Amino acid sequence: MSTELRKGHAPGDAPPPPLPRKPVEVLERLLVPEDLEAALARLDRPSGSYDYDPWGLSIERSKLFVGLVKRLYDNYFRVTAHGLENVPAKGRALIIANHSGQLPIDATLMAMAMLTSPYAPRAPRAMIERFFPKVPFVGNLLNRVGAVIGDPLNCSRMLENEEAIIVFPEGVRGSGKLYRDRYQLQRFGAGFMHLAMEHRAPIVPVGVVGCEETMPSLADIKPISRLLGLPYFPLTTLVPLPARVSLYFGEPMEFAGEVTSEADVVARVDQVKDAIRGLIARGLSERESIF
Prior knowledge:
Blueprint: H1 23-31, H2 34-41, H3 63-76, E1 80-82, E2 93-97, H4 105-115, E3 125-128, H5 138-144, E4 147-149, H6 152-160, E5 164-167, H7 172-175, H8 191-199, E6 203-209, H9 222-228, E7 246-249, H10 262-286
Parallel strand pairs: 1-7, 2-5, 2-6, 3-4, 3-5
Antiparallel strand pairs: 6-7
């Protein structure tokens, strides 16, 4: 049967979308809503002949994962995002946030917020811990959806490619901390500030509230973490808890001009840390319930 003669389609009407032929296409039709499909289409990211960019991101091949995350974003974590207008519509930027939750749920939800932003959808890259690629299947999946190992050279090249990059300067000190230390910022590395100054990239501070409660860690089981070669092995829930998550994107911070010492760099890092601390405090004060 020709397309023109399908049931309910009159001659002269715009042709309906083609019927899905593969199981993956069927799932995409079910899980990827039209508004998300439209947001992905507007990204207009350059890619190679196999739809991958130089760091392994493929928007086309990530649709099913993105659709699943959008369901969790809306219905499980019930995310609210504030200040998305502060994310530059284009060009290089460093998105700097507090880290928590054992798994990169915070980065995933931040990326979804930016991807579906009503102001200017962007597909950010996320710097991930070096041990994630060692986890079977997880490394490839993370690369496909935009994550890259947190290496200064990777970050530098992506900034030159005008990417927006999510960075957690606390590293595993933040994601692996115990629940009793929730919302207490750990020591920040200064690498992101050096990159921001070198590449003249604005910094967007972000306060994440809620991810601390998704996988609260009561202890770090060090014998198991040493056995597996992991930085920590938390005593926590088997699956993330459905805590409500709020994201607060602050106003961009510019750090132009030369500095004369590493102490000056640390002082600038502390400015960003203070901005994030303020956004977290705002989020905690506005939160009405954890779940």
